Amino acid sequence: MFVRIGNTPRDYAWGSTTAIAALLGTEPSGGPEAELWLGAHPGSPARVLDPTLADGAANLAEWERTSDLPYLLKVLAADGPLSLQAHPSPEQARAGFERENAAGLAADSPDRNYKDPFHKPELIFALSDPFEALCGFRDPAESRAALERLAAAGPGGAVLSGFARTLDGEPGTVLRRATEWLLGEDGDVDLLVAEVVAAARALPDDRDADTVRMLDDAFPGDPGIVLALLLNRATLRPGQVLYLPAGNIHAYLRGLGIELMAASDNVLRGGLTRKRIDVPELVSVLDFSPIRATPLAPEHPADGVEVFRPDVPDFQLSRIELGGDVTFAELSLPGTAIALCTEGTVELTGATDSLVLTRGEAALVTADEGTLSVASGPGTLFVATPNR
Question: Which of 87, 130, 261, 310 stands the most exposed, by the fewest C-beta atoms within 10 Å?
Answer without folding.
Answer: 130
